Amino acid sequence: MNRFFLLCITIGIFAYLPVVAAEKPSDPYEVRVITYSPYQDIFAWFGHSAIEVRNVQSGQATTFNFGGFYFDFKHLLEFSLGKFTFWNFALKTERALYPYRREGRHIVYQTLELTPLEKLSIRKELIQSLKPGNRFYQYDHFLDNCSTRIRDIIDKALNGDLKKQSNETAVFTFREFTHRMTYKDPVVDFLVMFLMNDTLDKPITDWDSMFLPDRMMAVIQSSKTISDDGRVTKPLVKSREDENIGDGIPYYTEKPEAPNTVFREIIWGGILLVLFAFNAVFYMKKHRFFQKLYPALVSMFGLVFGLLGTTLLFMMCFTDHKDTYWNENILLLNPITLVLLPVGILRVFDRAATLFSWLSVITFSLAILGVLLKVLPMFDQVNGQQLRVLLPTIVVIGITGIVDLVKNNKLFFINLKSAEG
């Protein structure tokens, strides 16, 4: 009787255990990707990404961020050398959201459809990223930033499925995606486009495009979860919430549009052309006032654009900014352009006339060489913006220098007056 009684109790206990296990949730966590829209400060033009881990039972939520940086003089110097250091940190979600909500940013929350093991993988990677040996990393705008780090962590948890699904050719190149975020400020946009070499003009994939937070948001939104047998099961994004949706953010869309700034560049190039051509005509006519004003204008051109060309040469030769190496714009602007500054000032005071003319011709010749070399396949850098703005003025400077040398018998080494007689 006792044995029969114990057997019944044992069977009852084992029969009850599955029910207890079924009622107890095994995975209380949710993972959300948080995307912040761009803002007016230059370092916020590209938006921002973060990732949140939330315990749905306790309500505790932590946001992990890969975009910490300082921008004092020391770090500005590091940035100029291509050695800019970012770091990882974690905050309670409400505290992490506060500055972005205060700025009125558009915030997108994407809750991911993940298995318990996938969530565990993400949590482990995030915790690992905060350890002293992993916390700091060398920032790369296109390859290693606040967005790509989150992308890589999610992809690792999905065993590479995110990368496999985002292997299609993207609608834009790195340059075009960057231009899309900088075009509203013509000066900054010109500087950034000028410094970028032809490696950023090659076709890229949707995976590569996720260097931008809003592109990662869009790619994740369209991705699926894939089962072990290779079949698509569910959308990767289980739910999406939008906060502070507002106007004035045309680039914050899932189907990006390319801004067309050609007309603006033609206008700026035309203004410079008219200014320099008008002064050059009277300079060549030996008008006393323009004998001073035209060299002064060329000197200012040398100061502004010569510094830009010299900066490019420095970045090409002495920094880790690989995206500037072998930049074709070095033929358009370079240290020779900068020499126009002191020589132009000397010309204002009726000195160094021949040197001034020769420097003008050399500047012109290098620019024309850069244009002619484009017939060769390896010279495929997209620098139409720079050519539209600068080339007309450089042509005027060059032609003026040639005419000046001819008139003064310094170009062809013949006496024009004797030839006319």
Structure in words:
The structure is a single chain. With about 425 residues, the chain is of the alpha+beta class. It contains 16 helices and 9 strands. The strands form 2 sheets. Strands 6-4-3-2-1-5-9 form a 7-stranded antiparallel beta sheet. The chain is elongated. The N terminus and C terminus are likely disordered.
Blueprint (SSEs and pairs):
Layout: H1 2-23, E1 29-36, E2 48-55, E3 61-68, H2 73-80, E4 85-92, H3 93-102, E5 107-112, H4 116-129, E6 136-138, H5 146-157, H6 161-165, H7 174-182, H8 186-195, H9 206-209, H10 213-222, E7 224-226, E8 232-235, E9 237-243, H11 262-284, H12 288-318, H13 335-348, H14 353-372, H15 384-407, H16 416-420
Antiparallel strand pairs: 1-2, 1-5, 2-3, 3-4, 4-6, 5-9, 7-8
